[in-house]
Amino acid sequence: MARYALLSRRLLATRPCMRSARAFATAAPPDPQRTSSSSSSPSSDYRVKLVEVGPRDGLQNEERAIPLATKLELIERLAKTGLTTIEAGSFVSPKWVPQMDNSSEILQHLLQHPLPAPNPLTFSFLAPNLKGLTNAFSVLAQHPTSFAPENTPPTKEKPALEIAVFASATESFSHKNLNCDIATSLARFRDVIHAAKDTHSLRVRAYISVVLGCPFEGYDVDPHRVAQIATALLEMGADEIALGDTTGMGTAPRTKELLTCLSKAGVRNEDVAMHFHDTYGQALVNTAVALEHGIRTFDCSVGGLGGCPYSPGATGNVATEDVVYFMETLGMDTGVDLDGVVDVGAWITGEIGKENASTVGKAVLGARKRAEADGGVKA
Ligand SMILES: CC(C)(COP(=O)([O-])OP(=O)([O-])OC[C@H]1O[C@@H](n2cnc3c(N)ncnc32)[C@H](O)[C@@H]1OP(=O)([O-])[O-])[C@@H](O)C(=O)NCCC(=O)NCCSC(=O)C[C@@](C)(O)CC(=O)[O-]
Predict the structure, then answer these.
(1) What family is it from (predicted)?
(2) Which of 52, 53, 92, 178 to mutate for ligand 1's pocket (most ligand atoms within 8 Å of CB)?
(3) Cα(289)–Cα(294) distance, rounded to whole angstroms?
(4) Looking at residue 248, which CATH number applies to its domain?
(5) Is 177 a pocket residue for ligand 1 (Cβ < 6 Å)?
(6) How many angstroms separate the CA atoms of 307 and 265, rounded?
(7) Residue 127 CA, ligand 1 centroid: distance in Å
């Protein structure tokens, strides 16, 4: 928390970016005098953390109730692919988002039954207020030793847990999504962040939605306002800011402008995650811009599932399959098995009767079919 204590005075210190990805390395050689506060070694700079949001953001907008067993199976299948961080549910009002009503059961199950996975896991759950956090705590109280507290590495037996709050970059979206203005939401998040840390030592992620375009106020979302909100959340103790292009209206120049503005406001790249939706097909271009800026955490949703109930017309999150393929072709290391996530994307879209929105997923499945027809090996 102290790390960001000075930011309220709007320090405009520019921090050096992390070294560019291999694919961008030809533009400028690595700087041996690099003084970034990041602890990244050259090899860790090629590592990208993917946050799988399919079980929450991907499913929350589905009208038909999805059985608990399907949600649990989705999380279990995703965990097997090498993904390490999975957003598994949301402690919001069931009157507002009925699909997330069984998040307590999901959390309970994950704590009682460690999932078979190649790596230790972190599960994230949204909580917009103390009521939601209290509901999460009532599950944790039954299993106080079944998860790894913050600053203790998770193990295969004890996953880590994370709470996510979600602010908005515009007043209109804040009212639609949270039924309150931005200042009121931030005051609530302060309580949630402090309680999550003080009571159960939980890591906290803080989203800021509509950072690159608002369904009600349009394209001109002020990047300085986003930086201000990010700074406020970091000062409250949030561990990570997830910048949500909820509407998919973001473009490459505006993504660059936003990230530059945040860097100038003193927000470190390692504290930022990008959460792109692909409504206008710009998600991977914007991902490249963010990668070049030095961001190494990206949200994605298997099969391109998703959409926000309060963002009319917004389609799914960028597909996990597409991000894995894109990153790996750039020489970045996601740790995720592409074939595995393609299988999960095909399975879940079939289960819930949605079109598979992953371009890469469809290409790999098509290539497999052709190879099978030719009697060859799968692609
Ligand atoms: C924030 C509230 C709760 C305020 O909702 P409100 O109606 O203003 O709250 P309230 O305090 O007046 O309470 C009204 C009723 O809701 C109950 N209640 C109140 N809070 C909770 C809770 N946490 N869990 C369960 N119940 C709750 C409360 O107990 C009460 O019940 P009643 O007395 O009428 O029976 C409401 O607006 C809400 O739940 N909104 C959900 C919005 C949401 O989930 N949006 C989607 C997630 S954000 C997103 O998708 C974007 C993101 C993160 O992916 C990033 C991006 O793409 O940008």
Answers:
(1) Belongs to the HMG-CoA lyase family.
(2) 92
(3) 9
(4) 3.20.20.70
(5) yes
(6) 30
(7) 8
Clarify whether 261 is annotated catalytic.
Answer: no
Sort 152 into a burial class: Cβ within 10 Å, 0-12 / 13-18 / 19+.
exposed
Q: Residue 223 falls within a domain, yes or no?
A: yes
Q: Which of 17, 214, 300, 308 is catalytic?
A: 308
Domain that holds residue 266: 2-27+40-373
Q: Ligand 1 in contact with 209 (CB < 6 A)?
A: yes
Average pLDDT value for residue range 66-79 = 98
Q: Could you tell me the CA-to-CA distances from 146 to 71, 86, 107, 158, 319 in Å, in that order?
A: 21, 17, 11, 6, 31
Ligand 1: atom nearest CA of 317 is 57
| Domain count of the fold of the chain | 1
- Asked if the structure places residue 362 within a domain, the reply is yes
Position 32 in a domain: no
pTM of the model: 0.90
Number of C-beta neighbours around residue 89 at 10 A: 28
Distance 102 CA to ligand 1 centre (A): 14
Q: What are the pLDDT digits (tens) for 50-61?
A: 999 999 999 999
